[in-house]
């Protein structure tokens, strides 16, 4: 009879320990930490970020980087107008838009730092779109286009090159 009571008590303790929330985990995005019932860390496991999360973070970083360029122009005395949507994929960029700078449109694009298109722009100062060459200025992985038609072209290029 004592053995049965002892086994029942042991089983009860194990069930209660399992249900008591003895296993806790921290931030699900970055790390899982499994703890035993004495709150001692037993296992640490990092989760891989999901592909969609990585793409979203990269897009946000690119947007912030492009916004930072626009803010730089504004902090240097330029008037900033409306943004316009651009088909950034056509110039093989990851993000981009047009924006009025001192009343004339300029385009800013963000490129993957390892892209062939960016390397071409950095070496030639042009983007070749199926035989049609577009003047382009690179500053890191940010590229400015459409500036060749701006009335203050030289000043715009100088400001862009001094960014960062």
Account of the protein in words:
- This protein has 4 helices and 8 strands.
- By secondary structure, the protein is of the alpha+beta class.
- The protein folds into 2 domains: about 30 residues, no CATH class; about 110 residues, Protein Transport Mog1p, Chain A (3-Layer(aba) Sandwich).
- The strands form 2 sheets. It has a 6-stranded antiparallel beta sheet with strand order 3-4-5-8-7-6, with helices on both faces. It has a two-stranded antiparallel sheet with strand order 1-2.
- The protein is globular.
- The termini are far apart.
- About 10% of the residues have low confidence.
Give short descriptive properties of this protein.
164 residues; alpha+beta; Protein Transport Mog1p, Chain A; 6-stranded antiparallel sheet; 4 helices; 8 strands
Outline the secondary-structure elements.
Layout: H1 2-19, E1 31-35, E2 41-46, H2 51-75, E3 80-85, E4 95-101, E5 104-110, H3 116-124, E6 126-129, E7 132-139, E8 142-145, H4 153-161
Antiparallel strand pairs: 1-2, 3-4, 4-5, 5-8, 6-7, 7-8
What is the 3D shape? Answer: globular
Q: Ends: how far apart? A: 80 Å
Q: Report the CATH architecture of the largest domain.
A: 3-Layer(aba) Sandwich
Mean pLDDT: 78
Total helical segments? 4
CATH fold descriptor of the largest domain: Protein Transport Mog1p, Chain A
Just give the CATH class of the largest domain. Answer: Alpha Beta
Number of domains: 2
How are strands sequenced across the largest beta sheet?
Answer: 3-4-5-8-7-6
Instruction: Characterize the biggest β-sheet.
Output: 6 strands, antiparallel
Runs in which pLDDT lies below 50 for 5 or more consecutive residues are 22-32, 42-46
Order of helices and strands: HEEHEEEHEEEH
Radius of gyration: 28 Å
Q: Percent of residues in beta strands?
A: 25-35%
| Total beta strands | 8
